[in-house]
Specification:
Length: 846
């Protein structure tokens, strides 16, 4: 039987001051950090101080011992690298085993009978990239770094949310594999469902030793109580397992996620009385589901709708970037934490962006379990990529490796050729600059679709994001295929998200700084201000602070010399902006079939578009996603004849809703009121114009509109207590503010303010704060009850001000006079009423 020995210990890093202990998996930066030889590049301005690390060569050394026991003396011993970052020469006892130039591939070298010093000599990624550029010629790029000339994590060279920390090292496991006769070189399970019956077609490739060429080999497989067996012919075998009526895997919110153990064994059949023996085995968890991408043309253009097991899905998505610039530090537990956060926010699709990495199997395992659909980019982003050698061969090998590795996962629903490169070619002045040179089009429109069709025909492929489906339309045409909406963040007010209805919004977003506790940790000793040195260094977007300030100034008086207020308002605007887009686009289902917010996570502490900051703290945007991605959503949208009420039901059951519409004054007085009893079918949207007598004048500064929906009719009572409202707001230009509560017997709320906050006659906010007795040890859990005596808009408890580990269960809330909200805070170091009140913020009169 094949044996594996992990080579995690005994490594050293060759350093100027002598060898340093090295950790594998790991990288140069993490080893130097452990040795105390560089400062933490995530803190202050330290990133600049460690730039030299990425510009020099590094060598890792370990001794390989000879086989000592009979069990170690197999016919073949392979040295296997699951990830080498990136350009390296591998030698054993002075003899070269091979050279690598791709971070995204696995490598295997025959070291049978060899032992002695093992050296992995890494060239600077810059040196490798420049050498390739000299061969291929210059190509356009949106950033100044040469990442398109080397098959390496592009965002490690810096991005508009990431630091420039160019790594080197063995970032994934290294091991020795000892085997005899033959091994399973590749197993490809093609899993399909037809008329309720499941099928697994296994394509199996075998590698033999020289001594094993005459052996009679068989493969067997089992899944779901079904078994199959076959003979190896040459170097391959095909097995088919038909599983009657398997339980289907569904995206979260549409059904369960049953997983089946698929097991494959390779056996050498004895002859002449010799016993049979198992040589190798392979196992994965699979799921039975059917995935189709509906790209049909219709009266609105060309669609882009995921259809899972015959059910069209509005994708509630987020973009995912590497969760750390040093990916070897991302543990399975960290993946699970971040992906659970996604699922708990109502997210059902995670797009792995093309400037990062193919994530570890642990990532996809959790997505399989949680019902999170995975959209996987091939790793090309924001640049023209040469198609000449040596890159072309690396691209093909990398794609083959990762398609085969990831295809068992039922959560994987789409292969995508690139991020923004088709758009860049047509729209960013690349085409004339290239003057006929290759730029990657041959990868996205020829090589990659051919490889997916060959290796994994069970899943759809799209050439890029954005992509209209053909050159007949602009690559980012909102009426055709996928669309990236960045003009709003870059130049406009977020109300302008409502100006169009794209078929599928694969990227859009709005920035905000990280949580206050994250800033204090990352910028120790700094007097925080929007333009303080550390804040500016941890703002990587072009004119990022200018865009933040303009976004605030369109709605509020921009604070001067009040960082706490500025921090709060930027958080509010981020949440409102994303909510404005999602509410509008969801209200137009099925014309729009999905939104993928940029972005879920961060890789370090930075001002960015993330909902979860670089220290793992939740921004208000996270809680807003939980509201706008809930199965049931109530929203007020601008319309030609006044505000439009949209009632969105993405659940599997009809929604019998009682909606009360109230036109109110700023002081809380009700001017007009009407109740609507509605039934919204499953997976449908109800839209209707608000009756004229309930709609405030378009320029009203003292009136607003409130819509409250309950699952069934009930009396209102006053004051009302909201058990767990999840609310946030969007106003201006006919905008809508929406908030909600518990779905079971609770209320959902939407609020429409005709004018911007700075023009609305808000009363001075007045509310009481009551803090319960902490329950549990170490800060425990405490309930905070806020009772409003006036209109209180966008109330936010910044729990991390009560202690760096403190967490609040919700984000922004809007309360009418007499209403209460109950907030649950865990792990607070301070729970006094004064401290809690100091951590509360809300909108104030201009």
């Amino acid at each position: 039987m094949k044996e594996a020995v992990q080579l995690t210990e005994g490594w050293s890093l060759d350093h100027d001051g002598g060898p340093l202990p090295a950790r594998v998996p790991g990288c140069v930066h993490t080893d130097l950090l452990t040795a105390g030889l560089i400062p933490d590049p995530y803190l202050g301005l330290n990133e600049s101080e460690v730039a030299w690390v990425g510009r020099r060569a590094w060598t890792y050394i370990r001794n390989l011992e000879p086989a000592r026991t009979a069990s170690e003396r197999h016919e073949r011993t392979d040295l296997v690298f699951d990830g080498l970052d990136t350009a390296a020469v591998i030698t054993l006892d002075g003899h070269e085993l091979g050279r690598t130039r791709n971070m995204h591939r696995r490598y295997r070298f025959d070291v049978t009978g060899r032992h002695g010093p093992l050296r992995i000599e890494f060239t600077s990624a810059y040196e490798e990239a420049e050498a390739v550029r000299a061969l291929t010629g210059e190509r356009p790029n949106v950033y100044p770094e040469p990442f398109q000339y080397i098959r390496k994590m592009a965002c490690g060279f810096g991005w508009d949310w990431g630091p420039t920390l160019v790594t080197a090292g063995m970032w994934r496991p290294v091991r020795l594999e000892r085997w005899s006769t033959a091994r399973l070189a590749e197993v490809r399970p093609l899993v399909t469902v037809h008329d309720g019956a499941g099928r697994v077609e296994l394509r199996i490739d075998i590698e033999r030793t020289e001594q094993g060429t005459d052996h009679h080999l068989e493969v067997s497989a089992q899944v779901g109580g079904v078994q199959a067996r076959g003979t190896v012919a040459g170097g391959s075998a095909v097995l088919t397992l038909d599983v009657p009526a398997p339980d289907l895997w569904w995206p979260r919110g549409y059904g369960e996620q049953p997983l089946y153990d698929l097991e494959v064994a390779l056996v050498s059949r004895g002859t002449g009385g010799a016993e049979s023996r198992q040589l190798d085995s392979w196992s994965r968890r699979i799921g039975f589901r059917d995935v189709v991408l509906d790209r049909s043309a219709d009266g609105h253009g060309t669609g882009f709708t995921f259809v899972v097991n015959g059910v069209p899905v509005f994708a509630r998505g987020v973009n995912w970037i590497p969760d750390d610039v040093f990916p070897s530090r991302i543990t399975p537990d960290r993946y699970r934490t971040r992906l659970r956060q996604a699922a708990e926010a109502g997210i059902d699709l995670v797009r792995i962006w093309g400037g990062g990495i193919y994530e570890d199997d642990a990532f996809y395992d959790v997505c399989d379990e949680l019902g999170l659909m995975v959209w996987q980019d091939f790793l090309f982003a924001c640049a023209a990529y040469p198609e000449e050698q040596p890159l072309r061969g690396e691209v093909e090998a990398e794609a083959r490796d990762n398609v085969v590795r990831l295809m068992p996962h039922p959560s994987l629903v789409l292969w995508n050729g690139n991020n923004e490169n088709l758009w860049g070619f047509r729209d960013w002045d690349w085409e004339p600059a290239l003057a006929g040179d290759s730029w990657g089009g041959g990868y996205y429109l020829d090589l990659l679709p051919r490889l997916v069709a060959e290796l994994d025909p069970t899943r759809p492929y799209t050439a890029g994001s954005p992509w209209s489906g053909s050159w007949d339309h602009h690559p980012n045409d909102p009426a055709h295929g996928t669309h990236h909406s960045w003009e709003v963040w870059n130049r406009r007010d977020y109300a302008e998200y409502r100006d169009s209805v794209p078929r599928f919004v694969a990227e859009f977003g709005w920035q905000a700084p990280p949580a206050m506790a994250t800033l204090r940790r990352a910028l120790p000793g700094e007097s925080l201000a929007p333009d303080s040195p550390g804040m500016l260094h941890h703002q990587k977007a072009e004119d990022g602070n200018g865009k933040l300030n303009r976004g605030v100034a369109r709605h509020f008086r921009l604070p001067e010399d009040d960082f706490d207020r500025w921090h709060y308002l930027t958080q509010v605007v981020q949440a409102r902006a994303v909510a404005a887009g999602i509410e509008h686009w969801r209200s137009h289902w099925p014309v729009c079939a999905g939104t993928v917010v940029w972005q879920l996570n961060d890789c370090w502490p930075v001002s960015s578009w993330a909902a979860v900051d670089g220290d793992g703290r939740l921004k208000p945007l996270y809680h807003e996603l939980r509201r706008v991605y809930a199965d049931r959503l109530l929203t007020l949208q601008p319309g030609a004849d006044g505000p439009v009420l949209a009632v969105v039901n993405q659940s599997a059951e009809p929604w019998h809703a009682s909606v009360t519409l109230r036109r109110m004054r700023a002081d809380g007085t009700v001017v007009a009121e009407r109740r609507l009893d509605l039934t919204v079918p499953a997976r449908r949207v109800h839209r209707q114009t608000v009756p004229g007598e309930l709609a405030p004048d378009a320029l009203a500064t003292k009136e607003f509109l409130v819509a409250d929906a309950w699952g069934s009719p009930r009396s209102w009572g006053s004051p009302r207590s909201w058990g767990s409202p999840r609310s946030s707001e969007a106003e201006g230009g006919g905008g809508a503010e929406s908030g909600g509560g518990a779905e079971s017997g609770g209320s959902l709320r939407a609020v429409h303010f005709p004018v911007a906050d700075k023009d609305f006659a808000y009363p001075a906010p007045h509310y009481d704060v009551a803090v319960g007795t902490p329950v549990g040890s170490g800060g425990g859990s405490v309930e905070v009850v806020v009772t409003a005596h006036t209109l209180v808009r966008d109330l936010l408890l910044q729990a991390d001000r009560l202690g760096p580990d403190a967490v609040c269960d919700s984000g922004l809330h809007t309360l009418l006079p007499g209403e209460q909200v109950r907030l649950r805070v865990n792990n607070a170091a301070e729970t006094g009423a004064n401290a809690v009140r100091a951590a509360l913020f809300c909108v104030e009169p201009a």
